[in-house]
Amino acid sequence: MSVELTPGTWNLDLAHSEIAFSVRHAGISKVRGQFTEADATLVVGEGLDSSSVSATINTASFDSKDGNRDAHVKGADFFNVEQFPTMTFRSSEAQGAAEQFKLVGDLTIKDTTAPVEFDVEFGGAAVDPFGATRAGFSATTVISRKQFGITWNAALEAGGVLVGDKVTITIDAAFILSAN
User: Fold this and answer.
1) What is the percent of the chain with per-residue pLDDT over 90, rounded to a whole number?
2) Could you report the per-residue pLDDT of 82-126, keeping only the tens digit for each?
3) How far apart are the C-alpha atoms of 145 and 74, rounded to whole Å?
4) Number of neighbouring beta carbons within 10 Å of residue 45
5) How many Cα atoms are found within 13 Å in the side-chain-facing hemisphere of 52?
6) How far apart are CA 149 and CA 112, in angstroms?
7) How many alpha carbons fall within 13 Å on the CB side of residue 54?
8) DSSP classification of residue 161
9) Domain 8-17+34-142+170-177: what homologous superfamily?
10) CB environment 77-111: b (16+ within 10 A), e (fewer)
């Protein structure tokens, strides 16, 4: 099945989207959370190769449902939200079919930019009861937090460390076609 999106500018519908993460904790479980404030724009061209995504995430919107942990992660040991209030992603290319593709681009966290590759699944497009044209996507990637200069950790008595290096990012994004 081939589904084509209307070329133009699509804006993130944050109320129907989630930017989530998980990271290994104490070597035995995973901590999950999300960023609750973000902005993203999808520019759809005539094909996948002429389309792009840019996103900005408010690092202070980090929420893992634990106030003490959230305060620590927002501090200088991790995101340092005072100095680095946002992280960004800018796509550089998309590879594959319209329904499942790789979205390649640059992720900037703190003062470090590195290439990342998201596996993306197109969920479909529809016109809602209010006349807005919507499109949905799911995307995942795994990054090394050390690659972005986030190296704080604590040794465990039994061996290993408190916070794993690999962070899984999962995005479920809804976009609305701009009327312009």
Assistant:
1) 60
2) 999 999 999 999 988 878 899 999 999 999 999 999 999 999 999
3) 14
4) 12
5) 9
6) 7
7) 3
8) B
9) Lipid/polyisoprenoid-binding, YceI-like (2.40.128.110)
10) ebbbbeeeebbebebeebeeeeeebebebebbbbe
